[in-house]
Amino acid sequence: MKALVSIKRVVDYNVKVRVKSDGTGVETANVKMSMNPFDEIAVEEALRLREAGTVTEVVAVSCGPLACQETLRTALALGADRAILVQTDEELQPLAVSKLLKAVADKEAPQIFIVGKQAIDDDSNQTGQMLAALTGWSQATFASKLKIADGKAEVTREVDGGLATIRISLPAIITTDLRLNEPRYVTLPNIMKAKKKPLDTLTPEALGVDVKPRLKTLKVVEPSKRKAGAKVADAAALVDKLRNEAKVI
Amino acid sequence: MNSPDEDQILDAISRWLERDVRPQVKELEHADRYPESMVATMKEFGLFGATIPREYGGLGLPAGTYSKIVTRISEVWMSLTGIFNSHLIMASAVTRFGTEAQKEAFLPRFASGELRGGLALTEPDCGTDLQAIRTRAVRDGDDYVINGTKTWISNGIHGSCFALLVKTDLEAEPRHRGMSLFLAEKGPGFTVSRKLEKIGYKGIDSAELIFDNYRVPASSLIGEAEGRGFHHALGGLELGRINVAARGVGVANAALKDSVRYAQLRKTFGKPICEHQAIQLKLGEMATRCEAARLLVENAARIYDAGERCDMEAGMAKYFASEAALENSTEAMRIHGAYGYSTELDVERYYRDAPLMCIGEGTNEMQRIIIARQLVARNPA
Ligand SMILES: Cc1cc2nc3c(=O)[nH]c(=O)nc-3n(C[C@H](O)[C@H](O)[C@H](O)COP(=O)(O)OP(=O)(O)OC[C@H]3O[C@@H](n4cnc5c(N)ncnc54)[C@H](O)[C@@H]3O)c2cc1C
Q: H or E element: which one contains B158?
């Protein structure tokens, strides 16, 4: 069984994000980029399935500019068998990514496609769901546990009220939640080995996908600054403020 | 600038440091406990083979990349680098001077971390003046029988193989012609007499080793020729100095980073102390020292990687960077006021760790003498 995992290159989670002065987006020039943390969890899960003998091949896919190769190299260093970059400098919105991933899925015919539940840059939380709609495959979102047996996937999902466990048929789209696993480290010997693994490049045109943005970003602004705190004289003053100013009690 | 490869490597190291090392340093360090689980990860990371050639199972990293790794780790806990550094110097002696059979027998085991150790040069009566060592090896059939004492040996307790410097000829003139370097694996006659207590550089073991009629096969004599040991031991010191210098950069950086942060948080007389000129002068000097030290290390590493002699440049880097670490740690303590003197913050550890780098791998007095000698040799009047 083949597993596909999608990888997005995002601003590193340790970076303090700054909005561009013209308000069109966030600054990404000279900013440390790395793999979207939810995608790391996706890679880890696929690797565990391979180590358990359920999956035979793990293929990492990324869509975006040439620099995404670096992020794919990280996936290869983590243990993916090969990688595919759908290369484009066009701004990619979730629907475009879903269409590209569908086109790759058509070519690769995986039994399981593991996708991060969202990317930490735009927090869209759409790609996996739209990919399921486009492929017509089953989907299980926000997975915190995944078991595959007898051609079915049993997935525990993190939902508002607690945990829901569902069984779905394959092929399927799984989106990962934070607690699915703790990703392994990239080790230095594996970084060296990853250099020899295949990394193929495709283009949206070759896949016949129109990736033109459908949504227009009007403005991006910094979150409003947190107001300075205030000291209160005693508990009574605090209760008064909570009741009358903050109106939370 | 780092290459993309270096970025990926340093990124991998940083993740480990932040996730597994930083949260544990204080406890392990204060208890002087050996970081077993970190050593296990270091093995997985390939650090015990970082500079060992790839054909023998190592990563074959150049000194430039290696020194950046050492700096990065030292920014979090300098001691950890001691666990693989003298080990790699031992490996480099085998790589450079060993026979093919010795390379095949030892390097893959060194690279995997299965066999770990370091350098056993210093004795109770001599460190700088290594030609005065008294540990003696006497040929007996296919073996040598070794008697003597080594001290201050890093990894002495947890390591199991050491590059052991001995005298094979007491009469030789000059004295170094009578010295030889062996690969000594622990066995009958090779015991650890005690763990040495020290003010810093904790977690890693420094020990006294006793050789009492310890037998090694003649095939363990590096290069299988007597009288080359001094040369072999010194041959590794260029890389060793680059390494200690890189550690110095790490500690100096850590002291600076903590100070820059604290100076913005701590307020006196109505403003953060970073706005007082006295503190600004300190920060300015500390940052400049870090940058200069880093550049000296990069320069020495570049020359080393080009295969050229770099004892002068490595000496400059070692001297300057270790003094930078010491000065920055002292200044960090002043900037932190009483909190710098507290054992709850990391500053006190930098202050205890920094002096080692002025002493180990050739004292800073000796570094300046070496630099001056080279200077004269390269510029005859
Ligand atoms: C924590 C720690 C770990 C160590 N790990 C190892 C290890 O793994 N393996 C190992 O072999 N050794 C190790 N050492 C030993 C270290 O290399 C020596 O301490 C160092 O070489 C200095 O030698 P010494 O202590 O005998 O000082 P000495 O040689 O006695 O020097 C004393 C003082 O005299 C100065 N001096 C000496 N000769 C001259 C001269 N000609 N001109 C001017 N000044 C001079 C020195 O600079 C120093 O200030 C370690 C030491 C420490 C503290």
A: none
Which pLDDT tens digit goes with each residue over A142-158?
999 999 998 999 999 99
Evaluate if residue A249 carries a pLDDT over 90: no
For residues B187 and B250, state if they share a domain: no
Percent of chain A with pLDDT over 70: 100
Q: Is B248 helix (H, G, I), strand (E, B) or coil?
A: helix
Mutate to test the interface with B, among A13, A35, A73, A187 (most CBs of B within 10 A): A187
Q: Provide, as residue numbers in chain B, all residues whose Cβ is less than 8 Å from the Cβ of A187.
A: 12, 44-46
Residues 6+ apart with CB under 8 A from B248: B74, B293, B318, B320, B321, B322, B323, B324, B325, B354, B357
Buried b (16+ CB within 10 A) or exposed e, B24-49: ebeebbeeeebbeebbebbbbbbbbb
CB B191 within 8 A of CB B208: no
Q: What CATH code is carried by the domain that includes residue B196?
A: 2.40.110.10
In the residue annotation, B361 being an active-site residue is answered as: yes
Mean pLDDT of A99-121: 97
Identify the band that residue A229 occupies on the pLDDT scale cut at 50, 70 and 90. confident
Cβ-count burial A23-35 (b if 16+ within 10 Å, e if not): eeeeebeeeebbb
Question: Structure pTM?
Answer: 0.92
Instruction: Return the DSSP state at B21.
Output: I
Token pair of B298 as six digits? 């990069």
Neighbours of B121 (CB within 10 A): 26
Q: Which residues line ligand 1 (CB under 6 A)?
A: B 86, 118-122, 126-129, 152-154, 198, 201, 206, 356, 359-360, 363, 365-366, 369
Q: B101 and B150 share a domain? A: no
Structural domain span for residue B151? 117-226
ipTM above 0.85, yes or no: yes
- Tell me how far the alpha carbon of residue B130 lies from the centroid of ligand 1, in angstroms: 9
Residues of A in contact with B54 (CB under 8 A): 192
B231 within a domain of the structure (yes/no): no
Domains and CATH numbers, chain A: 2-244 (3.40.50.620)
Q: CA B44, B40, B356, B207 torsion: positive or negative?
A: negative
Chain centroid to CA A185: 18
Q: Which pLDDT band holds residue A224 (cuts at 50, 70, 90)? A: confident
Residues of chain B with pLDDT under 70: 1
Last-in-domain residue among B84, B112, B140: B112
